Amino acid sequence: MTAATPEIDLMGEEAIRDPYSAFAPLRSDNPVVWNPQYRSWVITRHRDVSAALRDDRFSSDRIAPFIERKLADPGTDPLIRQAFEVLRHWMVFQDEPSHMRLRSLVRKAFTPRSVQRMQERVAELSTDLLSKISADDEFDLIAEFAYPLPAIVIAEMLGVPPEDRDTFKHWTDEIAPLVSAGLDDPDRYARAAAAMDALIEYFGDLLRRYEAEPADNLISGLIESRDEGDALTQAEVVATCTLLLFGGHETTANLIANSMLALLRHPDQLAALRDGQVDTRLAVEELLRFDGPGKAVVRVMREDTEFGGQLLRKGQRVFLVLAAANHDPEVFDDPDVLRLDRANNTHVAFGFGAHTCLGSALARLEASVAVPILLTGLPGVRLAERPLRWQQVFLTRGLQELWLRADGITP
Ligand code: HEM
Protein backbone atom coordinates (compact mmCIF):
# COMPACT_ATOMS: atom_id res chain seq x y z
CA MET A 1 0.00 0.00 0.00
CA THR A 2 1.29 3.45 -0.81
CA ALA A 3 2.04 5.84 2.03
CA ALA A 4 -0.18 8.71 0.92
CA THR A 5 -3.23 6.79 -0.16
CA PRO A 6 -5.89 9.19 -1.40
CA GLU A 7 -9.21 8.39 0.12
CA ILE A 8 -12.36 8.36 -1.87
CA ASP A 9 -15.71 7.75 -0.29
CA LEU A 10 -17.22 5.32 -2.77
CA MET A 11 -20.68 6.24 -1.58
CA GLY A 12 -19.96 9.91 -1.06
CA GLU A 13 -21.99 12.65 -2.71
CA GLU A 14 -19.47 13.33 -5.49
CA ALA A 15 -18.82 9.68 -6.34
CA ILE A 16 -22.55 9.06 -6.59
CA ARG A 17 -23.32 12.17 -8.63
CA ASP A 18 -20.34 12.08 -10.97
CA PRO A 19 -18.23 8.94 -10.59
CA TYR A 20 -16.27 9.83 -13.74
CA SER A 21 -14.73 12.94 -12.20
CA ALA A 22 -14.52 11.40 -8.76
CA PHE A 23 -12.44 8.41 -9.89
CA ALA A 24 -10.24 10.27 -12.40
CA PRO A 25 -7.50 11.26 -9.89
CA LEU A 26 -7.28 7.69 -8.60
CA ARG A 27 -7.04 6.31 -12.12
CA SER A 28 -4.14 8.59 -13.00
CA ASP A 29 -2.22 8.49 -9.69
CA ASN A 30 -3.25 5.37 -7.76
CA PRO A 31 -4.82 2.96 -10.18
CA VAL A 32 -4.64 0.00 -7.77
CA VAL A 33 -5.31 1.28 -4.28
CA TRP A 34 -6.54 0.02 -0.92
CA ASN A 35 -9.62 1.77 0.42
CA PRO A 36 -9.57 1.49 4.20
CA GLN A 37 -13.11 2.73 4.64
CA TYR A 38 -14.56 -0.07 2.50
CA ARG A 39 -11.73 -2.49 3.26
CA SER A 40 -11.33 -3.21 -0.44
CA TRP A 41 -8.94 -2.69 -3.32
CA VAL A 42 -10.15 -0.22 -5.92
CA ILE A 43 -8.93 -0.73 -9.50
CA THR A 44 -9.71 1.93 -12.07
CA ARG A 45 -7.58 1.68 -15.25
CA HIS A 46 -9.09 0.07 -18.32
CA ARG A 47 -6.13 -2.22 -18.86
CA ASP A 48 -6.06 -3.34 -15.23
CA VAL A 49 -9.82 -3.85 -15.02
CA SER A 50 -9.77 -5.89 -18.25
CA ALA A 51 -6.77 -7.91 -17.06
CA ALA A 52 -8.38 -8.64 -13.68
CA LEU A 53 -11.62 -9.73 -15.36
CA ARG A 54 -9.64 -12.33 -17.29
CA ASP A 55 -7.52 -13.46 -14.35
CA ASP A 56 -8.93 -16.35 -12.35
CA ARG A 57 -7.03 -15.32 -9.24
CA PHE A 58 -9.74 -12.67 -9.04
CA SER A 59 -12.56 -14.94 -7.92
CA SER A 60 -16.28 -14.35 -8.49
CA ASP A 61 -17.11 -16.67 -5.62
CA ARG A 62 -17.47 -13.68 -3.38
CA ILE A 63 -20.57 -14.42 -1.43
CA ALA A 64 -19.90 -18.07 -0.53
CA PRO A 65 -18.12 -17.37 2.79
CA PHE A 66 -20.86 -14.97 3.77
CA ILE A 67 -23.58 -17.44 2.77
CA GLU A 68 -21.84 -20.37 4.49
CA ARG A 69 -21.80 -18.34 7.71
CA LYS A 70 -25.49 -17.58 7.41
CA LEU A 71 -26.32 -21.19 6.59
CA ALA A 72 -24.18 -22.52 9.44
CA ASP A 73 -25.92 -20.28 11.96
CA PRO A 74 -28.83 -22.31 13.44
CA GLY A 75 -30.57 -19.01 14.24
CA THR A 76 -30.91 -18.13 10.53
CA ASP A 77 -34.54 -17.99 9.55
CA PRO A 78 -35.52 -20.83 7.14
CA LEU A 79 -36.82 -18.39 4.53
CA ILE A 80 -33.55 -16.45 4.58
CA ARG A 81 -31.69 -19.75 4.38
CA GLN A 82 -33.69 -20.64 1.27
CA ALA A 83 -33.04 -17.25 -0.34
CA PHE A 84 -29.31 -17.71 0.15
CA GLU A 85 -29.50 -21.20 -1.33
CA VAL A 86 -30.88 -19.60 -4.49
CA LEU A 87 -28.13 -16.96 -4.65
CA ARG A 88 -25.56 -19.68 -4.12
CA HIS A 89 -26.65 -21.14 -7.47
CA TRP A 90 -26.32 -17.89 -9.41
CA MET A 91 -23.60 -18.37 -12.01
CA VAL A 92 -22.41 -14.80 -11.52
CA PHE A 93 -21.15 -15.82 -8.06
CA GLN A 94 -19.33 -18.95 -9.23
CA ASP A 95 -15.89 -19.85 -10.54
CA GLU A 96 -14.85 -22.57 -12.96
CA PRO A 97 -15.81 -25.28 -13.59
CA SER A 98 -19.28 -24.84 -12.09
CA HIS A 99 -19.68 -21.39 -13.62
CA MET A 100 -19.10 -22.56 -17.19
CA ARG A 101 -21.33 -25.56 -16.74
CA LEU A 102 -24.25 -23.32 -15.76
CA ARG A 103 -23.41 -20.65 -18.29
CA SER A 104 -23.25 -22.99 -21.26
CA LEU A 105 -26.51 -24.68 -20.35
CA VAL A 106 -28.25 -21.34 -20.02
CA ARG A 107 -26.69 -20.05 -23.23
CA LYS A 108 -28.33 -22.93 -25.06
CA ALA A 109 -31.72 -21.61 -24.03
CA PHE A 110 -30.86 -17.92 -24.31
CA THR A 111 -29.83 -17.88 -27.95
CA PRO A 112 -29.23 -14.90 -30.26
CA ARG A 113 -32.30 -16.09 -32.16
CA SER A 114 -34.51 -16.00 -29.07
CA VAL A 115 -33.29 -12.45 -28.42
CA GLN A 116 -33.60 -11.21 -32.00
CA ARG A 117 -37.11 -12.55 -32.15
CA MET A 118 -38.06 -10.03 -29.46
CA GLN A 119 -37.32 -7.01 -31.64
CA GLU A 120 -40.85 -6.43 -32.85
CA ARG A 121 -42.30 -7.17 -29.46
CA VAL A 122 -39.98 -4.67 -27.76
CA ALA A 123 -41.11 -2.05 -30.29
CA GLU A 124 -44.77 -2.90 -29.66
CA LEU A 125 -44.35 -2.74 -25.90
CA SER A 126 -42.39 0.53 -26.13
CA THR A 127 -45.09 2.14 -28.26
CA ASP A 128 -47.76 0.87 -25.94
CA LEU A 129 -46.03 2.19 -22.79
CA LEU A 130 -45.36 5.50 -24.52
CA SER A 131 -49.01 5.90 -25.47
CA LYS A 132 -50.00 5.57 -21.80
CA ILE A 133 -47.72 8.37 -20.65
CA SER A 134 -49.67 11.46 -19.79
CA ALA A 135 -47.43 14.10 -21.35
CA ASP A 136 -49.63 17.10 -20.54
CA ASP A 137 -47.53 17.60 -17.48
CA GLU A 138 -44.18 16.37 -16.15
CA PHE A 139 -43.77 12.61 -16.06
CA ASP A 140 -41.25 10.21 -14.56
CA LEU A 141 -39.78 8.25 -17.46
CA ILE A 142 -38.47 5.56 -15.14
CA ALA A 143 -41.79 4.73 -13.51
CA GLU A 144 -43.78 5.00 -16.72
CA PHE A 145 -41.44 3.44 -19.24
CA ALA A 146 -37.87 2.46 -18.40
CA TYR A 147 -38.73 0.25 -15.43
CA PRO A 148 -41.74 -1.64 -16.78
CA LEU A 149 -40.33 -2.31 -20.27
CA PRO A 150 -37.48 -4.72 -19.41
CA ALA A 151 -39.57 -6.37 -16.72
CA ILE A 152 -42.26 -7.23 -19.24
CA VAL A 153 -39.71 -8.31 -21.85
CA ILE A 154 -37.84 -10.76 -19.61
CA ALA A 155 -41.07 -12.04 -18.08
CA GLU A 156 -42.45 -12.77 -21.54
CA MET A 157 -39.22 -14.39 -22.67
CA LEU A 158 -39.26 -16.64 -19.63
CA GLY A 159 -42.88 -17.59 -20.32
CA VAL A 160 -44.59 -15.72 -17.50
CA PRO A 161 -48.23 -14.89 -18.28
CA PRO A 162 -49.07 -11.16 -18.52
CA GLU A 163 -51.43 -11.22 -15.55
CA ASP A 164 -48.47 -11.92 -13.22
CA ARG A 165 -46.33 -8.97 -14.34
CA ASP A 166 -47.09 -6.63 -11.49
CA THR A 167 -46.16 -9.24 -8.95
CA PHE A 168 -42.79 -9.49 -10.69
CA LYS A 169 -42.08 -5.83 -10.19
CA HIS A 170 -42.85 -6.25 -6.53
CA TRP A 171 -40.59 -9.30 -6.17
CA THR A 172 -37.60 -7.79 -7.93
CA ASP A 173 -37.90 -4.66 -5.81
CA GLU A 174 -37.88 -6.74 -2.67
CA ILE A 175 -35.05 -9.08 -3.69
CA ALA A 176 -32.76 -6.28 -4.91
CA PRO A 177 -31.16 -5.44 -1.53
CA LEU A 178 -30.05 -9.03 -1.14
CA VAL A 179 -27.64 -8.66 -4.05
CA SER A 180 -26.72 -5.01 -3.71
CA ALA A 181 -25.27 -3.08 -0.84
CA GLY A 182 -28.02 -3.31 1.76
CA LEU A 183 -26.95 -6.59 3.28
CA ASP A 184 -27.01 -5.56 6.91
CA ASP A 185 -30.60 -4.58 7.38
CA PRO A 186 -32.59 -7.44 8.97
CA ASP A 187 -35.96 -6.08 7.82
CA ARG A 188 -34.90 -5.93 4.21
CA TYR A 189 -33.51 -9.44 4.50
CA ALA A 190 -36.81 -10.73 5.76
CA ARG A 191 -38.75 -9.00 3.00
CA ALA A 192 -36.32 -10.17 0.32
CA ALA A 193 -36.51 -13.71 1.66
CA ALA A 194 -40.31 -13.66 1.61
CA ALA A 195 -40.29 -12.38 -1.99
CA MET A 196 -37.79 -15.08 -2.96
CA ASP A 197 -40.02 -17.72 -1.36
CA ALA A 198 -42.98 -16.55 -3.43
CA LEU A 199 -40.83 -16.49 -6.56
CA ILE A 200 -39.47 -20.00 -5.98
CA GLU A 201 -42.95 -21.39 -5.59
CA TYR A 202 -44.14 -19.51 -8.63
CA PHE A 203 -41.30 -20.72 -10.85
CA GLY A 204 -41.86 -24.26 -9.51
CA ASP A 205 -45.45 -24.05 -10.82
CA LEU A 206 -44.33 -22.67 -14.17
CA LEU A 207 -41.75 -25.44 -14.52
CA ARG A 208 -44.41 -28.08 -13.95
CA ARG A 209 -46.64 -26.38 -16.49
CA TYR A 210 -43.98 -26.25 -19.21
CA GLU A 211 -42.75 -29.77 -18.44
CA ALA A 212 -46.24 -31.00 -19.27
CA GLU A 213 -46.66 -28.64 -22.22
CA PRO A 214 -43.39 -27.30 -23.62
CA ALA A 215 -43.63 -23.88 -25.29
CA ASP A 216 -41.27 -21.61 -27.18
CA ASN A 217 -39.81 -19.78 -24.20
CA LEU A 218 -36.74 -19.64 -21.95
CA ILE A 219 -38.17 -21.83 -19.20
CA SER A 220 -38.91 -24.61 -21.69
CA GLY A 221 -35.36 -24.15 -23.04
CA LEU A 222 -33.95 -24.48 -19.53
CA ILE A 223 -36.04 -27.60 -18.92
CA GLU A 224 -34.57 -29.06 -22.10
CA SER A 225 -31.05 -28.19 -20.91
CA ARG A 226 -31.90 -29.66 -17.53
CA ASP A 227 -32.86 -32.97 -19.12
CA GLU A 228 -29.79 -33.29 -21.33
CA GLY A 229 -26.38 -34.77 -20.45
CA ASP A 230 -24.86 -32.40 -17.89
CA ALA A 231 -28.23 -31.65 -16.40
CA LEU A 232 -29.29 -28.58 -14.48
CA THR A 233 -30.96 -29.43 -11.19
CA GLN A 234 -34.38 -28.09 -10.36
CA ALA A 235 -32.80 -25.65 -7.88
CA GLU A 236 -30.41 -24.42 -10.58
CA VAL A 237 -33.27 -23.85 -13.03
CA VAL A 238 -35.18 -21.82 -10.46
CA ALA A 239 -32.05 -19.90 -9.46
CA THR A 240 -31.27 -19.16 -13.09
CA CYS A 241 -34.78 -17.85 -13.71
CA THR A 242 -34.38 -15.48 -10.77
CA LEU A 243 -30.96 -14.39 -12.02
CA LEU A 244 -32.31 -13.62 -15.51
CA LEU A 245 -35.24 -11.81 -14.00
CA PHE A 246 -33.10 -9.78 -11.66
CA GLY A 247 -30.10 -9.24 -13.95
CA GLY A 248 -32.24 -8.19 -16.88
CA HIS A 249 -34.49 -5.73 -15.18
CA GLU A 250 -33.00 -2.84 -13.27
CA THR A 251 -29.82 -2.73 -15.34
CA THR A 252 -31.72 -2.28 -18.58
CA ALA A 253 -34.11 0.23 -17.00
CA ASN A 254 -31.07 2.25 -15.93
CA LEU A 255 -29.54 2.00 -19.39
CA ILE A 256 -32.67 3.49 -20.96
CA ALA A 257 -32.94 6.26 -18.36
CA ASN A 258 -29.21 7.10 -18.27
CA SER A 259 -29.20 7.17 -22.08
CA MET A 260 -32.11 9.59 -22.22
CA LEU A 261 -30.45 11.80 -19.63
CA ALA A 262 -27.16 11.82 -21.56
CA LEU A 263 -28.95 12.67 -24.80
CA LEU A 264 -31.02 15.44 -23.24
CA ARG A 265 -27.84 16.96 -21.89
CA HIS A 266 -26.28 16.81 -25.39
CA PRO A 267 -28.92 18.20 -27.75
CA ASP A 268 -26.66 18.04 -30.83
CA GLN A 269 -26.14 14.30 -30.28
CA LEU A 270 -29.83 13.81 -29.60
CA ALA A 271 -30.72 15.54 -32.86
CA ALA A 272 -28.19 13.43 -34.79
CA LEU A 273 -29.72 10.22 -33.44
CA ARG A 274 -33.29 11.37 -33.96
CA ASP A 275 -32.53 12.38 -37.55
CA GLY A 276 -30.86 9.07 -38.34
CA GLN A 277 -27.40 10.62 -38.84
CA VAL A 278 -25.73 8.07 -36.56
CA ASP A 279 -25.89 4.31 -36.51
CA THR A 280 -28.12 3.33 -33.58
CA ARG A 281 -25.87 0.38 -32.71
CA LEU A 282 -22.82 2.62 -32.36
CA ALA A 283 -24.88 5.12 -30.38
CA VAL A 284 -25.96 2.46 -27.87
CA GLU A 285 -22.34 1.36 -27.37
CA GLU A 286 -21.38 4.95 -26.65
CA LEU A 287 -24.28 5.44 -24.26
CA LEU A 288 -23.16 2.25 -22.44
CA ARG A 289 -19.65 3.61 -22.21
CA PHE A 290 -20.54 7.19 -21.37
CA ASP A 291 -22.90 6.49 -18.46
CA GLY A 292 -23.67 2.78 -18.33
CA PRO A 293 -25.65 1.14 -15.52
CA GLY A 294 -22.81 -0.95 -14.10
CA LYS A 295 -20.40 1.15 -12.04
CA ALA A 296 -18.30 -1.67 -10.63
CA VAL A 297 -18.06 -5.43 -10.20
CA VAL A 298 -16.70 -7.27 -7.20
CA ARG A 299 -14.07 -9.96 -6.94
CA VAL A 300 -12.26 -11.59 -4.06
CA MET A 301 -8.61 -12.65 -4.19
CA ARG A 302 -8.19 -16.42 -4.42
CA GLU A 303 -4.50 -16.18 -3.53
CA ASP A 304 -1.85 -13.56 -2.72
CA THR A 305 -1.28 -11.74 -5.99
CA GLU A 306 1.11 -9.03 -7.19
CA PHE A 307 -0.95 -6.69 -9.32
CA GLY A 308 -0.23 -3.16 -10.49
CA GLY A 309 2.70 -2.87 -8.11
CA GLN A 310 0.62 -3.87 -5.08
CA LEU A 311 0.23 -7.06 -3.10
CA LEU A 312 -3.39 -8.14 -3.06
CA ARG A 313 -3.83 -10.67 -0.28
CA LYS A 314 -5.86 -13.84 -0.41
CA GLY A 315 -9.44 -13.17 0.74
CA GLN A 316 -9.31 -9.42 0.16
CA ARG A 317 -12.17 -7.81 -1.73
CA VAL A 318 -11.61 -5.94 -4.97
CA PHE A 319 -13.79 -3.41 -6.76
CA LEU A 320 -13.19 -3.23 -10.49
CA VAL A 321 -14.56 0.16 -11.39
CA LEU A 322 -16.08 -0.22 -14.86
CA ALA A 323 -17.19 3.43 -14.89
CA ALA A 324 -13.60 4.63 -14.42
CA ALA A 325 -12.24 2.16 -17.00
CA ASN A 326 -14.83 3.38 -19.51
CA HIS A 327 -13.50 6.94 -19.21
CA ASP A 328 -9.83 6.05 -19.32
CA PRO A 329 -7.99 8.53 -21.60
CA GLU A 330 -5.41 5.85 -22.36
CA VAL A 331 -8.09 4.02 -24.33
CA PHE A 332 -10.71 6.59 -25.31
CA ASP A 333 -10.09 9.96 -26.98
CA ASP A 334 -11.89 12.72 -25.07
CA PRO A 335 -13.41 10.14 -22.75
CA ASP A 336 -15.77 12.58 -21.07
CA VAL A 337 -17.31 13.65 -24.36
CA LEU A 338 -20.42 11.87 -25.64
CA ARG A 339 -19.74 10.99 -29.26
CA LEU A 340 -22.45 8.71 -30.57
CA ASP A 341 -20.50 7.73 -33.67
CA ARG A 342 -17.43 6.66 -31.67
CA ALA A 343 -15.81 3.69 -33.41
CA ASN A 344 -13.80 0.82 -31.84
CA ASN A 345 -15.62 1.30 -28.59
CA THR A 346 -13.97 -1.22 -26.30
CA HIS A 347 -15.98 -0.34 -23.20
CA VAL A 348 -16.40 -2.79 -20.35
CA ALA A 349 -19.98 -1.85 -19.46
CA PHE A 350 -20.96 -5.52 -19.68
CA GLY A 351 -17.84 -6.73 -17.91
CA PHE A 352 -15.33 -8.85 -19.80
CA GLY A 353 -13.97 -12.39 -19.84
CA ALA A 354 -15.74 -15.49 -18.55
CA HIS A 355 -18.57 -13.62 -16.82
CA THR A 356 -19.31 -11.12 -19.60
CA CYS A 357 -22.98 -10.26 -19.38
CA LEU A 358 -25.08 -13.07 -20.77
CA GLY A 359 -27.93 -10.67 -21.49
CA SER A 360 -25.93 -8.05 -23.38
CA ALA A 361 -27.63 -8.77 -26.72
CA LEU A 362 -31.03 -8.35 -25.11
CA ALA A 363 -30.04 -5.14 -23.31
CA ARG A 364 -28.60 -3.71 -26.54
CA LEU A 365 -31.73 -4.67 -28.43
CA GLU A 366 -34.03 -3.05 -25.86
CA ALA A 367 -32.08 0.21 -25.78
CA SER A 368 -31.69 0.42 -29.55
CA VAL A 369 -35.41 -0.04 -30.04
CA ALA A 370 -36.75 1.93 -27.07
CA VAL A 371 -34.57 5.07 -27.19
CA PRO A 372 -35.37 5.99 -30.84
CA ILE A 373 -39.07 5.33 -30.17
CA LEU A 374 -38.91 7.74 -27.22
CA LEU A 375 -37.08 10.39 -29.25
CA THR A 376 -39.58 10.22 -32.08
CA GLY A 377 -42.63 9.81 -29.89
CA LEU A 378 -41.87 12.66 -27.51
CA PRO A 379 -41.45 15.83 -29.58
CA GLY A 380 -39.78 18.63 -27.69
CA VAL A 381 -38.76 16.27 -24.91
CA ARG A 382 -36.65 18.02 -22.25
CA LEU A 383 -35.61 17.65 -18.65
CA ALA A 384 -38.08 18.93 -16.09
CA GLU A 385 -36.65 21.44 -13.66
CA ARG A 386 -36.14 19.07 -10.79
CA PRO A 387 -32.95 17.99 -9.07
CA LEU A 388 -31.56 14.65 -10.24
CA ARG A 389 -31.45 12.04 -7.49
CA TRP A 390 -29.09 9.13 -8.07
CA GLN A 391 -29.54 5.80 -6.29
CA GLN A 392 -27.25 5.70 -3.27
CA VAL A 393 -25.45 2.51 -4.30
CA PHE A 394 -21.92 1.81 -5.38
CA LEU A 395 -22.14 -1.10 -7.80
CA THR A 396 -24.79 0.21 -10.13
CA ARG A 397 -25.64 3.62 -11.51
CA GLY A 398 -29.20 4.72 -11.94
CA LEU A 399 -31.52 7.57 -11.16
CA GLN A 400 -34.32 7.25 -8.69
CA GLU A 401 -36.57 9.20 -11.04
CA LEU A 402 -36.19 10.97 -14.37
CA TRP A 403 -38.75 13.75 -14.69
CA LEU A 404 -39.32 14.96 -18.24
CA ARG A 405 -41.57 17.30 -20.16
CA ALA A 406 -42.69 16.95 -23.77
CA ASP A 407 -45.00 18.67 -26.23
CA GLY A 408 -47.44 15.78 -26.35
CA ILE A 409 -46.98 12.29 -27.68
CA THR A 410 -46.66 11.13 -31.27
CA PRO A 411 -47.17 7.39 -31.13
C1 HEM B 1 -27.59 -2.63 -19.76
C2 HEM B 1 -27.96 -3.68 -19.12
C3 HEM B 1 -26.99 -4.61 -18.45
C4 HEM B 1 -25.75 -4.35 -17.91
C5 HEM B 1 -25.02 -3.02 -17.85
C6 HEM B 1 -25.25 -5.61 -17.40
C7 HEM B 1 -24.03 -5.75 -16.81
C8 HEM B 1 -23.47 -6.97 -16.44
C9 HEM B 1 -22.14 -7.14 -15.94
C10 HEM B 1 -21.13 -6.02 -15.72
C11 HEM B 1 -21.95 -8.46 -15.72
C12 HEM B 1 -20.66 -9.13 -15.22
C13 HEM B 1 -20.68 -9.33 -13.74
C14 HEM B 1 -19.36 -9.82 -13.22
O1 HEM B 1 -18.39 -9.95 -13.98
O2 HEM B 1 -19.29 -10.06 -12.01
C15 HEM B 1 -23.18 -9.13 -16.05
C16 HEM B 1 -23.40 -10.48 -15.94
C17 HEM B 1 -24.62 -11.08 -16.21
N1 HEM B 1 -25.74 -10.48 -16.75
FE1 HEM B 1 -25.94 -8.56 -17.28
N2 HEM B 1 -26.19 -6.58 -17.63
C18 HEM B 1 -27.25 -6.02 -18.28
C19 HEM B 1 -28.38 -6.66 -18.73
C20 HEM B 1 -28.64 -8.00 -18.59
C21 HEM B 1 -29.80 -8.67 -19.09
C22 HEM B 1 -30.89 -8.04 -19.94
C23 HEM B 1 -29.70 -9.98 -18.66
C24 HEM B 1 -30.63 -11.14 -18.88
C25 HEM B 1 -31.86 -11.11 -19.13
C26 HEM B 1 -28.47 -10.11 -17.93
C27 HEM B 1 -27.99 -11.27 -17.37
C28 HEM B 1 -26.72 -11.44 -16.88
C29 HEM B 1 -26.22 -12.71 -16.40
C30 HEM B 1 -26.98 -14.04 -16.37
C31 HEM B 1 -24.89 -12.49 -15.97
C32 HEM B 1 -23.93 -13.50 -15.37
C33 HEM B 1 -23.02 -14.04 -16.41
C34 HEM B 1 -21.98 -14.94 -15.84
O3 HEM B 1 -21.74 -14.92 -14.63
O4 HEM B 1 -21.39 -15.71 -16.62
N3 HEM B 1 -27.84 -8.88 -17.91
N4 HEM B 1 -24.10 -8.19 -16.51
UniProtKB/TrEMBL annotation:
Keywords: Heme, Iron, Metal-binding, Monooxygenase, Oxidoreductase, Plasmid. It comes from the Bacteria. GO terms for molecular function: heme binding; iron ion binding; monooxygenase activity; oxidoreductase activity, acting on paired donors, with incorporation or reduction of molecular oxygen. Its cofactor is heme. Pfam families: p450. InterPro entries: Cyt_P450, Cyt_P450_B, Cyt_P450_CS, Cyt_P450_sf. Gene3D superfamilies: Cytochrome P450. Belongs to the cytochrome P450 family. This is Cytochrome. It comes from Rhodococcus oxybenzonivorans.
